[in-house]
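Working notes for the structural subgroup meeting. M.R. asked for a predicted model of this chain before we commit to crystallization trials. I am recording the input and output together here so anyone reviewing the notebook later can reproduce the run.

Input as submitted:
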Amino acid sequence: MPVDENIASDKFTCICPEGFSGDTCQINDTKIVVSFEK
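Returned structure, recorded in token form:
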């Protein structure tokens, strides 16, 4: 996600879309599920 450099970076909370986290939603929470069935 793009970050707006004009926003003060010390006092805010981002509401991140599903799959992202971090102070500015910059972390992609990729989840890999591996399943083996017999």
